[in-house]
Write the structure tokens for this entry.
Amino acid sequence: MMISPSHAPKAAGPMQARDFDMYSNNGGTTLAVAGSDFCVLGADTRMSDGGYGINTRNYTKLCKLTDKCVLATSGMQADTLALQKNLRSMLQMYEHNNGKPMSTPAIAQWLSNTLYFKRFFPYYTFNVLGGVDDAGVGCCWSYDAVGSHERCKYSSSGTGQQLIQPLLDNQVGHKNQIRAIEVDLTADEAEDLIKDALTSAGERDIYTGDYADIARVDKNGVHLSKFELKFD
Amino acid sequence: MSIMEYNGGAVVTMIGKNCVAIASDLRFGVQSATISTNNPKVFKINDRCFLGLSGLATDIETLYEKLVFRVNLYKLREERDISPRVFSNMVASTLYEKRFGPYFTEPVICGLEEVDGVLKPYISATDLIGAPVYTDDFLMTGPCNPALYGMCETMWRPNLEPDALFETVSQCLLSSLDRDAISGWGAMVYLITPENVTVKKLQGRQD
């Protein structure tokens, strides 16, 4: 009896799963502005599914690490959760071993090392660390996914980074303003600028919107507030 | 590497109170190499109508010459200057003629058009196959787009006087150019009012 080709036994071979993309970008924008004695961080709260859908409108990207330090992370929130868990347990151990909370510059260095530890299977996270150091001076660090970091006066990351970064260059860094009197921003001015930046990013970037968290860090601690962005 | 990012270049246009501004960077490059730093991308069609083109440099040149040819014919036949609105339509149809083998440029048109005897500002832009967009605030084209969107969205507000509009356009463009590796080397800003047209060359970061 002839076996028709469609019923012929197929050659045995290894089982193959279809390619599975291990990373997805949940979107969002974060930014920080550091001043002489404060640091203000802002982050939207929209979590997207990587495409046109919204998983939730109210997922915070800010994580308070100590009374003097806040971490803002955009990228893949699953990796963010793992990273934050890692960080929180390390912070507790440090405080028990050393009798004091970890200083912001020390956290900054530790975060860089943690990210590079997974250099060959990275955390898909784009971090901005903001706070005050032990002298009370405002500081902010920006990171790439594998831990390259730089201390700076202002920084942004996420899907709205390309929109917001030139604005920060112009308004905080006073770039291209030859005759501008270079005065450092006050905390209120920084907060207003961050709100404007997130509003503008929310207009033109589909992954940014819904609500925004603002964290103001100074020698008195961390003060969190929320404001509304557009839902569209 | 996209064909639209081969030569670099950025153009932005903004509406003010009875005035419009259009500005472009000055770089002409071939991927990472800069060939010339004196290549503005804004062209005058007539006293009340300007065209900005970004994208592939050879297509910018060809499209500009094609459009000038058509505008000259229009002027001969109609015995009047072409208005920005009509010119915008001409640009869109010229691009759509090449729908399945397009010119790799995305134009921005700006000018003042007469509506019921009053001159009103007008801006429009199209994509590379002629889909038009008309707004009453600002438009931009080129690889600098995300940066320009962020800057313009924050800095622009309606009814800016000519001086304020000039400053706003300049700051938006210069700050955006600094965050784009393939655009820059200064800028050229045209400010068009009912009385005259002023051109200013800006010295930005020369890199």
